[in-house]
Amino acid sequence: MTADRPDFGITQATPAHVEPVTTALAEAFFGGDLAPWLVPDHATRAKVYPMYFRIFAEYFLEHGRVDATADLNAVALWLPVDDHLWIKIPDYDVRLAKATGTAMARFAMLDMTQDAHHPTLQPHLYLAFLAVRPEQQGEGRGAALLNHGLDLADQARLPAYLEATGTRNQGLYHRHGFNLRDVVWIPGGPYLYPMWRPSGAPRTPRPPSP
């Protein structure tokens, strides 16, 4: 650990951590860029998001890698991709319908848009979710998780890919060597901002606060 790169005790989460991982995801994205379109009503969203994000927490804990701060208030969900993205969640359509209800069509459209634009024939690490619970945001947990994951990517000489959900979080990713590939419209909804980072791309620390 250095002064500009605190590690927050980052460790790899296990299936036993499914509840706090789910909570971190649901709370972090509750006010996210896509939330007003996916589930406009706040009360409905509060019911949908924990069920929805548990689907991915379970899958990534079993089949990907989930990095977490020691307090489990921030998580990063990574998946190695070879030629094509392959996320095969048992009974996914049934679980998605149960979790999202009348909002299912929008969640399905998000899935289809992401799948259609995901890089192919280029082995890489996919950062599907980077989440910090709201009360801990702005303290460096997200950057610490990102640095940890990119250290592993660089050691494996692999590029990395993610979809930013808005312009405000692109700055964090850009400082870590990601560059915008394209701007993708979710039909009927907002935009996604796919970003790609070559292996070994330089990282720039955040400027100190005045």
From TrEMBL:
Record-linked InterPro entries: Acyl_CoA_acyltransferase, GNAT_dom, Trichothecene_AcTrans
Top-level taxon in the UniProt lineage: Bacteria
Entry-linked CDD domains: NAT_SF
Domain called N-acetyltransferase: residue spans: 51-198
Pfam families: Acetyltransf_1 (PF00583)
PROSITE patterns attached to this UniProt entry: GNAT
PANTHER family: GNAT FAMILY ACETYLTRANSFERASE, N-ACETYLTRANSFERASE DOMAIN-CONTAINING PROTEIN
Name used for this protein in its record: GNAT family N-acetyltransferase
